[in-house]
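Researcher: Please predict.
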Amino acid sequence: MGPNREALISSLGEAASALVGCPFRLHGRDPATGLDCIGLVHASLAAIGHRPVAPHGYGLRNIQIDQWLDCAGGSGLEPASGPIRPDEVLLVALGYGQHHLMITSARDIIVHAHAGLRRVVAQPLRSDIQVSARWRIGATKEG
């Protein structure tokens, strides 16, 4: 077998793209058995050497999500601003109480765990998507 595939992945978007086709499973964290949107972010961060912190106790619809937003910072992500770029995590509102995470793999391409299609997919980023928050990998601090 060739070199470790994970060792070749250098960006968050590339890591997410490598998971396209994985099955969807609510609360899923293992690409072999299924991922939800949080599991996709978790697996993608782990693939590039981060130790992600995933929230627990959520459903497909959640009116309040504030209690889970600190998991982004605990996972090495920091708030993003300006134009959307590759390698960002987007929190979007799909409907009332339906929050969803996506990862940008290219400027206008997102990767996400699609519950309706029952798998992780790459799709164009639609202009009508309401982005509630965005994060990027934080700058490493050398000590």
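Model: The chain is about 20% helix and 30% strand.
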